[in-house]
Amino acid sequence: MKLVSRDIDKNDSGSVSLVPEEAEDMWHAYNLITIGDTLRSTTIRKVQNESATGSVSVNKVRTTLTIQVEAIDFDTQGCVLRVKGRNIEENQYVKMGAYHTLDLELNRKFTLGKHEWDSIALDRIEMCCDPTQHADLAAVVMQEGLAHVCLITPNMTLVRAKIETNIPRKRKGMCQQHDKGLEKFYDMIIQAILRHVKFDVVKCVLVASPGFVKDQFYEYMFAQAVKLDYKVLLENKSKFVLVHSSSGFKHSLKGKCKQD
Question: How crowded is residue 142: how many other Cβ atoms within 10 Å of its Cβ?
């Protein structure tokens, strides 16, 4: 579901404009709309015209109506939501108070108004409009000192965290600072994964890098998971897949990413 606009005041009264983009969104719309709400959308209306000679013609016109909802019917096979109610706004084709049925379909915007949005309806809006709910693939694209934690949906790649830090160079006989910097960098990536990857949704986590950075990080992450009892990582260890990437691959992914 695409959220076009949201205008809800501090008293939880107002409206939201939404565009259903897939079949499941129509089910969410069915659960959001209740009797007594106002609904605004485009529709087709038959209009009779009488000429000077007395002949009558019927034409179909597209117009925008706002109705007060009285009945709701969900056609699951046709993926159409039919909402019946009385027209409550001036319209050149439909009289005030006249009945009309609005057909809500995929990719057709509608505006839903409520006197009071309860927490259940607001939570449903948040859930169905959150693209990460449809991101069943995650990726950690990294090199030493730089990493992107991404969630990948069917339509876009979302960068949820960018971790960038200076790691001291390795010097002969003085590797301690380098190792400490690397561990701090790895710890930041682990925290980003724990914060942003929803393992109840995500089916696979790609860990990609040129060279052996990915392998070193993977070993460190699960050693820390055992040490600090990160159960969510240990329970989902099988979902992590190591991938060798070139710089070209990283640039390609970065070009497709949308920063939130």
Answer: 23
Segment 184-224, tens digit of pLDDT: 999 999 999 999 999 999 999 999 999 999 999 999 999 99
CA distances from 177 to 1, 184, 260 (A): 48, 11, 33
Provide CATH code, domain 133-259. Answer: 3.30.420.60
44-48 own/partner pairs: CB under 8 Å, 24+ apart: 45/93, 45/94, 45/100, 47/93
Closest among 8, 93, 118 to 42, alpha carbons compared: 93
What residue segments make up the domains of the chain, in order of their start?
2-129, 133-259
Whole-prediction pTM? 0.63
Which burial class, exposed, middle or buried, applies to 62 when counting CB atoms under 10 A from its CB (0-12, 13-18, 19+)? exposed
What confidence tens digit (pLDDT) does each residue in 113-143 have?
Answer: 999 999 999 999 988 888 777 788 999 999 9
Instruction: Outline where 167-212 has alpha helix (H).
Output: 176-196
DSSP 109-160: -EEEEES---HHHHHHHHHHT-GGGG--EEEEEEETTEEEEEEE-SS-EEEE
Burial class (CB in 10 A: 0-12, 13-18, 19+), 138: buried
Q: How big is the CA angle at 256 (ends 251 and 260), to the nearest 5 degrees?
A: 110
Q: How many beta carbons lie within 10 A of that of residue 239, not counting itself?
A: 16
The CATH classification of domain 2-129, taken from the options 2.30.30.870, 1.10.390.10, 3.90.180.10, 1.10.3720.10:
2.30.30.870
192 vs 197: CA distance, rounded Å: 8
